[in-house]
Amino acid sequence: MSSRNNNSSITSSNTLTTLNNSIKQDESETIEELSSENKSNLIKEIIELQEGLKALVERVESVKNDHDQKQSGNQILQTYINNLMSSKVLASANVNKKDG
Questions:
Q1: Which end of the chain has fewer CB within 10 Å, C or N?
Q2: Separation between Cα atoms, residue 74 and residue 65, nearest integer Å
Q3: Which is it for the CA torsion 22, 25, 29, 33, positive or negative?
Q4: What is the purpose of this protein (predicted)?
Q5: What is the pTM of this model?
Q6: Separation CA 57–CA 78 (nearest Å)
């Protein structure tokens, strides 16, 4: 399970890097035409947006991990409940045999 999460993290990181590089290439010509003040403001905004996106990706991964843990716990509880129910049915059947 953890290797899947690691692969997901790597994939997310690679996707962010690819998007980052793509944006840099596409925007480089437009940025050259801007004044230096506008350039620095735009770069700051881009960095803030990238950091926000990175935080969102990390939060999604965290929620996925929590979900996986809770799903595993639910499966354990379901097995336990099923075992209790089957033992209750068997106990009930034994009581009926003794009465009959």
A1: C
A2: 14
A3: positive
A4: Positive regulator of amino acid starvation-induced autophagy.
A5: 0.50
A6: 31
Domain boundaries, the chain: 2-99
Alpha-carbon Rg for the chain, nearest whole angstrom, is: 28
Contact 59, 10 (CB under 8 A): no
Q: Would you call 97 exposed, middle or buried from its count of C-beta atoms within 10 A (0-12, 13-18, 19+)?
A: exposed
- Is pLDDT of 58 > 60? yes
What is the average pLDDT across 90-95?
72
Nearest alpha carbon to residue 57 among 23, 20, 9: 9
Provide the 3-class DSSP secondary structure of residue 35: coil
Tokens of 35: 């004044």
Structure tokens, 57: 């990706």
Cα-Cα-Cα-Cα dihedral sign, residues 4, 8, 11, 17: negative
pLDDT in tens, 22-51: 766 666 666 667 788 888 898 999 999 999
By three-state DSSP, how is residue 1 classified? Answer: coil
